[in-house]
Structure formats: structure tokens, C-alpha cells
Specification:
Two copies of one chain form a homodimer.
Chain A (H helix, E strand, L loop, with lengths): L2 E7 L7 H13 L5 E7 L2 H6 L3 E3 L5 H5 L18 H13 L2 E8 L1 H17 L4 E6 L15 H21 L4 E6 L6 H5 L4 H4 L5 E3 L7 H15 L2 E6 L13 E5 L2 E4 L2 H13 L3 E4 L4 H4 L6 H19 L5 E7 L7 E7 H4 L20 H7 L18
Parallel strand pairs in A: 1-2, 1-4, 4-5, 5-12, 6-8, 6-11, 7-8
Antiparallel strand pairs in A: 2-3, 9-10, 12-13
Helix pairs in contact in A: 1-12, 4-5
Chain lengths: 391, 391
């Protein structure tokens, strides 16, 4: 089967989604017998519906390689909700442009779209193979051990927590609350524990959405830490909830699937100020958490390239309605391998931190989590030096 | 004159204050005829008063070199307000520990302390030479062209604005407001303009504390940009004021010289949401702005080492009550040289952005600022790639 191959990006970008794009385009160009042109949909599924394409197979290798160090999505992405007729239209667009292979790069929502397009193509009698490339910073995609995007977001939080801790310990006059991305799953916030690997300095507490937030308990712990250490560093996920499941900060804006809340970190810092009278501040890097190339994990980037290439190979091999997943090869040194997962197994299932990765008091992670997470962030963090009084 | 040399850090840390420490220690060790031991005061001027010292001249070179990549202050720092008797005590402590040279590394407040210690030593009849090493992320120290710490903070903002812009343009569904450090002077926020140097993508507007904030005008501009581009990126300094000089956000906590305000970026994002009904979010990296080693500017680091070494040499040469400053050597390629400034010329004078560096509409910088700032951020920012619709 010969035809064009289309790559579509969905949802929020990551530091390595373009690396998967690089892997997919590079692989596709190796198969001129099956792939005519490689297209990118400009602006996600919306761009596909508007038939806005660019020809990636015509891009010089030198420029293509810049994808490995370009954050966000070089072909754009979207979060447009799709209707049943949109999928039928996509199937017809594939036919019109002789697109025989579609690679959907995205998270849970995009895998849902992937599955629906696959079914729409069958229903429309259009011969198209649809394969998913996993992408998430939140690490909330089911079945796969982890997915491209998470390792870099994890490295980002570990590195900045290490730096902010160094700052707070050198000028121990306040409580600093760092906000990590991840509204429903605490994987990124949890990765801040890796800040401790360098020189022992790291977060004093880690608040995860998998555990209910109890204000009195939080304030007691902060007070105790402040008395003991002066400067205190807390990392929190952006989506903490009360024991009844409601957000600890009220929503300020709602549009479709997106809900905007006030900042959890600012809320916690204000609690410390107002209820304990202790200086506190918040650091909310926000989008930097997913778009920083300086903190891109080398392991994450390599796996992203592999995921793109594997998805391309799978489609060319006749696979359909599957997503590329990663699993670990048992052994003392980290090694991963890919496998294919039927998209219906991942569609809209949200994966949270398992109990064995969360400490008994619910305010930290376990050594098992640290062991699991460490290889994903790539090279070791920079080593710092601190001097103590001697005389 | 032979004796010990003491280095004291004051105020908030930067990404290169430890580089100045490295420069000072390394230089001091070259003069065994004048310098016996090199001490670091652990915990700033408070640490000096508590006589908490560590012997930096005994630290192995390998460990000392880690200072060049260690953020914050490796010997701690403080913001304790000092009384007249504290300076007299410091003079006596110098005598007691045979300290003949004191290098104060800090900003405007520390240069004030530097001048007062110099006078107290004269009054107490203690033969001590006191020299200042400039340090600021805000670039608000008078007389010097710029000072160590600013170049790295500037590089940080330029790089993350470039990355966030890439993210927002690839998923143009909201207005993003990035908050830069710098409460009274807009130098850091202004440096975000350098994000445009890579591939044309950068901030759409830059809000500086040197210009009054007018809400209606802000909302009009955002609405117009949103209509035109979808995604909008705004960089703001953390200290915007109304035309009457009051902060646009109310203070939430005051202690001594420190006042804590709500976040300006969150306030602006909420204005966009509530008054325009447009999705908006804020990114406030906070302390990351001054503590990121990944975004350390190589030029800034080198100048920081030079500032430390020069301060040491000045003290050994008999200078007293002076601070090391930087000025540019005229010519087509950036080159700086140091000179000595009497501390009374810099003490507590706050330097703001001059009019010629601010655009006529007050919401951006001029090409003259970009030319002035560019060499200070070190190597060029990473180049990104973006594809547009072709078919």
C-alpha cells in the first residue's frame, strides 16, 4: 500500500513532541516504496479538518534536526473538541489527499481521536492506517510504563527544586512553594524528590493530588519545619483537592474541557502568611515546566524519537488502531522497549500515582518511586557546593 | 600589611555570586605575602557578627570550581538590618580574627553596609580595608554600566519567553503573562525582548515599572492582539504601579524592608479573564529567575569572577571604601573593563531604565536597549524551527 503519511499533534505540547515528529519523518523517508510524501497537519486536528498541511519530507535534514531542540509543537496543535461528523470528514480528507497513514501524537484525548478516526475510516470504506504516538507531561497515559514528555517535565522540576532549595537554604527567611504541572496526577510534583540526589538538598514536603489536602495538618507541618530549618521548600501539584474531592482553590474560568483555577502555590503561600505569620512566596513556572529545552531529558528525547519512528513502522507494517507504548527491560541498568497497545485500552483512562510510590504520611514519595523515576530524567543533575561554619 | 581576608555576602543571591566568590578566593591565594587565610562569613553580615566563618583557602581547587555552577550563596547570605553598634562590633571582630581585608558582595544595601563598616573601622582605629563586589539581578546599582547577576537573570527571561512564546503560538488558545523579577526597575522584564533574536517569536508587550499601568489601555491592547494572533505573550515586571504610584496589587505581608505583594502576573491574567472573557494564565518562575544555572550567562559568569578578583586586588593595593564597577570599552565588539567607584556614590541609589531604552508607547523597549543588553546574556539563544501551511 503506497500513499502519503500525515502526522497530527493533539493537546498541550511537551519538550519532546517535536523529537517524535523528527523520528516519524526520518523513518517515513526510509520507505519510499510505501510513503510518497510526509505531511504535517498545521494546527492539530483542526488544521487537518481545514486541510492545512505542510510537506515535511521536503524539509532539509539540517532544518529537520532543529526539531530536536525546538519546544512546543513546530506544526502547531489544538484542543478543539471533535464531533462524529468531524471524523467522517477526516476520513474523506485522507481519501482526497491520498493519505494512507495517519500518526496521531497526543495524550489520552488524542488517543480517543485516534480510535474514532480509525473506526470512521472503516465505516467510510477508506483504507487508512491510524497509529498513536504517546505524549504527555503528566504521565497519565494508561498501560505504558511512561510516555515521552514526562521525563523532561520531571527533570525540569527536579532541577529547579534543587536550585530553589539552594537559594532558600542560603537565605533562610521564608517558605517557598513551588507549583508543578499535573492537575489530577502527581507524577511531576513527585519527581522533585530527585532534587535530593545531587547534594542532599531538596523539597521538605511534596503535595500530590492523589492524597486529600488537610489545611490544619499542612500548617502544623510547615510550622514545625520552619522552627527547625528557617527556610522551607514545598513542592505541590497544581491540582490539590479537599477530602470531599473539591479543589482547594475555586475555579475562576471554565471553557469546554478546560477549567482555570487560581494558583495552588499562591494559595498555600497565603495560608502560611495569614495563618502562621511566616513569610512565604510561590514559584509557579507554569508553561516553562513543559517547554524548557535546557532541561530536556536526553533519555526522554531519545525515546520520543523512537516512539515516532516505531509508530511509523507499525503503520507501514499494517497495524491499525494501536498506540506505541514503553516497558522496561528487566536488569540492573535502565533499558526500555516499545510494544503496541490497542488504543481502546488507553482511550481516556487516566493513570495516577500508585500507593507504593507515595510515602505513608502522604507528603513525600517512596524510594521505589525514586528508583522508577531516576533513569527517565537523563543525566545526573549538576552538583552544588555549600560551606558550613568551621571556626 | 598581612592578615586574613573575609568575604561576606549580602542580600538575595544570584546565579553568579558564587563565581565572584571563586574569583576572590583564587586571587587571594595568589598573594601569600599579604593574605594569610581566606574566610567566608557563613550567613552574611549576621554570620560575621556571630563569628561563623569557614576557611575557604583550605578548600581543594576541585571543590572550589563547583562554585562556578552552584546557584545561590554557597556561604549563605542575609538581609538582617544592621545598627550602628553592629558595625563597631564588626570592626572589633576583624581585629580579634586578624582580618585585614573585608570584601562585601552585594547590592545597594550591602554597599551601604560596606561604607558604614569602612567608617566604623576608621572610628575604632582598626586597620581594615573594605571593598565592595557588585551583585544584583535587578541591575539597579548606580554608576556601574551593569553588575554581575543581571546578565544571567536577563538570559533566563529571554530564554523562557522564547520557549513560552513557542508554546503559545503552537497552541494559540490563551494569553500568557510571564512575571519577571525586578520590583522598582524593569531591566529584567525588558531583557525578554531578546527572545526575538532567535526566530522572531517573542513577547507581544513588555510592561515596566518605569511607566504607569493604565488598566483600560492594557485591556484594549490585549483585545486587539488576541483578535489578531489568538495567542498573546506579555512579560511584566513584578512591580507595576498605578499612575498615582500605588502598586496595582495590594501588599499582603510586610516585614521590615520587605513587602510581599500578590502576583502581578496573576492579577493581569485575571483582568483578561474577568473583563475580556479571554482565557489567560500566568507563569511566575519567581526565584528560578535568579537561581537558574542552566541559563547562567557565560559573560556574566566571567565578569563575576573578574569582579571578585578585582575587589581582592584593590583591597591588597590599599584601596578602601570602594566598589568594583564595569564600563564598556568603545568598539564594535563587546568588551568591558573594571574601575573603582567610591561606595558613597552607589550607596542606596536605585538605578532605573532610562527613557531612551523604553519605546514611545511605553509597552516595549527600544533597539538601543536591545543593543545594550545583547552581549550581557552570553551565547545566542537556541534556534527553533516552525512550519507553516503550504498546501
Amino acid at each position: 500500500m503506497k500513499g502519503n503519511l500525515l502526522i497530527v499533534h493533539g493537546g498541550a505540547p511537551t519538550a519532546v513532541i517535536n523529537s517524535s515528529l523528527y523520528g516519524a519523518v526520518t523513518e517515513a523517508k526510509k520507505h519510499p516504496d510505501q510513503v510518497d510524501k510526509v505531511y504535517g497537519a498545521i494546527g492539530g486536528s483542526g488544521g487537518m479538518l481545514r486541510e492545512q498541511f505542510c510537506e515535511l519530507s521536503a524539509v532539509p535534514e539540517e532544518e529537520l534536526r532543529l526539531l530536536l531542540q525546538t519546544p512546543a509543537s513546530a506544526i502547531g496543535t489544538s484542543r478543539d473538541p471533535l464531533e462524529a461528523e468531524d471524523y467522517a470528514n477526516m476520513a474523506r480528507i485522507c481519501k482526497k489527499h491520498d493519505i494512507k497513514y495517519v500518526l496521531f501524537n497526543g495524550g489520552n484525548g488524542s488517543m480517543d481521536a485516534c480510535g474514532k478516526l480509525y473506526k470512521a475510516c472503516v465505516a467510510e470504506g477508506v483504507d487508512v492506517r491510524v497509529v498513536g504516538i504517546p505524549k504527555t507531561i503528566d504521565n497519565d497515559i494508561a498501560v505504558t510504563d511512561h510516555a515521552p514528555g514526562f521525563g523532561s517535565a520531571a527533570r525540569y522540576i527536579a532541577a529547579i527544586t534543587s536550585e530553589v532549595s539552594q537559594d532558600v537554604r542560603s537565605l533562610p527567611i521564608h517558605v517557598s512553594v513551588i507549583e508543578a504541572m499535573g492537575r489530577n496526577a502527581g507524577w511531576i510534583a513527585a519527581a522533585s524528590a530527585l532534587a535530593r540526589s545531587g547534594n542532599g538538598d531538596g523539597p521538605d514536603m511534596i503535595y500530590l493530588p492523589e492524597r486529600p489536602f488537610i489545611e490544619e495538618e499542612f500548617l502544623e507541618r510547615v510550622l514545625e519545619l520552619h522552627r527547625k530549618k528557617g527556610g522551607v521548600v514545598i513542592v505541590t501539584s497544581e491540582g490539590l483537592c479537599n477530602p470531599d474531592g473539591s479543589s482547594i482553590v475555586p475555579p475562576i474560568f471554565k471553557v469546554g474541557r478546560s477549567v482555570y483555577y487560581g494558583d495552588v502555590s499562591a494559595h498555600l503561600a497565603n495560608l502560611v502568611i495569614q495563618k502562621l505569620g511566616i513569610k512565604a512566596r510561590s514559584e509557579k513556572p507554569g508553561i516553562c515546566n513543559r517547554s524548557s529545552i535546557a532541561f530536556q531529558s536526553s533519555v526522554d528525547r531519545e525515546e520520543a524519537v523512537i516512539a515516532g519512528a516505531e509508530a511509523c513502522r507499525a503503520a507501514l507494517n499494517g497495524e491499525n488502531g494501536v498506540m506505541v507504548g514503553f516497558r522496561r527491560v528487566p536488569g540492573p541498568v535502565y533499558k526500555s522497549e516499545t510494544f503496541l497497545i490497542p488504543v481502546e485500552q488507553v482511550m481516556l483512562h487516566e493513570r495516577k500515582m500508585p500507593d507504593e510510590f507515595i510515602s505513608a504520611d502522604g507528603r513525600d514519595v517512596t524510594p521505589a518511586f525514586v528508583d522508577w523515576c531516576r533513569p527517565l530524567i537523563g543525566e545526573e543533575l549538576r552538583r552544588f557546593v555549600t560551606f558550613k561554619p568551621q571556626l
